[in-house]
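Annex B, item 7. Sequence and structure tokens for protein A, then protein B.
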Amino acid sequence: MRALAPLLTAAALALSAGTASAGDFLALNGLRVVPAGGQEFHVAFGGLTGNDDFWCAAGDFVLRGLGLPPSTRIYRTSPPPRRAGEGVDFSLSDARAADSGFTRFGARDKGMSAAAAQHFCPLVPFFPFN
């Protein structure tokens, strides 16, 4: 089963690739990020994903997709816990900030810097050609 997981993930991503629009961004971990207008964006569900995968995609989108500085704050706007099959909404504004989904000590707010979020990405990119 463990050897089958990468194959199943690749198949799921291949099937979902056809639903991507021109404005979508494919993060280093293979998750699709969809701009939602203004400072809002959505990280789509991508199979076997956890909280760190969504934050990875959010940080990667802010840094590589938008070209913003590493210190840019990102806020989760959809409250945890996420239901099975659902994505996660994020914003660059703290106006609707929800809990990050992580236990963090000494955090100054509910957000995370783009650099810290991107550190959840795999060392070897899933799609290095993006």
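Protein B:
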Amino acid sequence: MSGSRFNEINALLAATGQPRMSMPQVGSDGLTPDTRRYRDAISLYHVRYSRHQSSGGEEITDNTQRGDYDEMGRFSWVPASLASAPEWLAEALGGQRMPIRRCVETQRMGRDDEYCLRYETVGHSFTPPSSVRAVAIRTSDHQGNHSVELVRY
């Protein structure tokens, strides 16, 4: 609501003896903090991914996009990679999620041999199904509970 319209409403309220309204706190994107919190609790992905074997090896086409809002609150699609998808998206799509581990403690066995005593997980790799076309959305409520919807097409 524009400032002038807000002032008109307050003038009408005052003329009828009703209490005035206070102007909500809005940011440069025109949203209140509560509205921005609801908007930012939505994650949206458009997945277009295919993987197949050819004579030159494995060919991957990944045209995944993530929905994003800029500082002014304008929505746009930005390039994303399904290989580095967030865990919730990987779970919704299926496929294989494998830990990436590195050795953090070794022991020598002889002069040139050593083996790893302990590994540490440093991340995960994700191998999606061979072909995926879908839109995925994850929402969070005011208590932080998540809900995921996946629509394949």
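Comment on protein B: Helices lie at 3-15, 33-40, 87-93.
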